[in-house]
Amino acid sequence: MSSGSNSGGLMSSAGLVRYFDSDDRDAITINPKTVLAFCVLFGVFVQILSLTAA
User: Where are the membrane-spanning stretches (predicted)?
Assistant: First the structure.
C-alpha cells in the first residue's frame, strides 16, 4: 500500500453525497414539528402506561 491506509475514502463517499443531495419529488415529506409533537405525545402515553401498570 504505497498510497496510504486511507486510499479511496473520498471516492467511495462521493456516491452517497450525490444520493443524499438529490431531491425526490415522490418522497413523503413530514413537517419536523409534526414529528416532534408525535414524539412528545408518545412519551406522555408511555409515562401514563407505566404509572397505571405499577
Answer: 35-53
